[in-house]
Amino acid sequence: GAGPRRLRAAAMAGFVRELERRAGPALRLEQRAAGGVGCVVWDAALVLAKFLETGACPLARRHVLELGAGTGAVGIMAATLGANVTVTDLEELQELLMVNIENNKHLVTGSVRAKVLKWGEEVTEFLPPPDYILMADCIYYEESLEPLLKTLKDLTGPDTCVLCCYEQRTMGKNPEIERKYFELLQRDFELEKIPLDRHDEEYRSEDIHIVSIHRKQMVGPQ
């Protein structure tokens, strides 16, 4: 009968996280209780989403790509600020991304779509390079560092701004992975930490960092 089916639907529905916005109704983000790392709204995603709302980066009519989007919180926030956004993650997260895009589409003033992007693979369909690449908490295992860096190199043009927000974790291998990531990144990119006082005054934390990343300009023979 309807009983067990309704229960299963409720279990699959996950739980909703509301993210207040400065202007207008909150974003409603479904999460999945079961199913790996991509399915809850991590603190770094909240911090980055709220940083975008400060207006520090002009997003209206800009092309924005989110890597490792998970629930899509950051990319959807950018779309409510007028950006044309593509949120990307693995195949198994597409359904959750679609649900969250659908749930918030009435708040979007730009545009937003979800696509599969596997780090390290072909990115032609995402070119020309976007104006912004957004990443929240994308550095957590070593195997993904090289593919992620390849994807960043393939996707960035001279004017692309990459905003990377991450929570500094002191457990296990995390510090080592973090150090290695920034070391590798600095071969091709310039990094600049965004000071805490420029983060949203409420959504900020000493151990959550936002780094603005640009391709190093190749200086040819003078």
Features:
222 residues; alpha/beta; Rossmann fold; 7-stranded mixed β-sheet; 9 strands; disordered N terminus; MT21D methyltransferase
Describe the secondary-structure layout.
Layout lengths: L1 H12 L1 E5 L7 E5 L11 H11 L9 E5 L5 H8 L3 E6 L4 H11 L6 E6 L15 E5 L8 H11 L5 E7 L6 H12 L3 E5 L14 E8 L7
Parallel strand pairs: 3-4, 3-6, 4-5, 6-7
Antiparallel strand pairs: 1-2, 7-9, 8-9
Task: Describe the structure in brief.
The protein has 6 helices and 9 strands; from the N terminus they run H-E-E-H-E-H-E-H-E-E-H-E-H-E-E. It has 222 residues and is of the alpha/beta class.
In words, what does this structure look like?
- The structure is a single chain.
- This protein is α/β, with parallel strands linked by helices and 222 residues long.
- It has one domain (4-215): Rossmann fold (3-Layer(aba) Sandwich), CATH 3.40.50.
- The chain is 29% helix and 23% strand.
- The chain contains 6 helices and 9 strands.
- It has helices at 2-13, 43-53, 73-80, 94-104, 145-155, 174-185, and strands spanning 15-19, 27-31, 63-67, 84-89, 111-116, 132-136, 161-167, 189-193, 208-215.
- A 7-stranded mixed sheet has the order 5-4-3-6-7-9-8, covered by helices on one side. A two-stranded antiparallel ribbon has the order 1-2.
- α2 runs parallel beside α3.
- The longest helix is centred in the first third of the chain and has 12 residues, at 2-13.
- The protein is globular and about 50 Å long.
- Residues 1-12 have low confidence and may be disordered.
- Keywords: Methyltransferase, S-adenosyl-L-methionine, Transferase.
- This is MT21D methyltransferase.
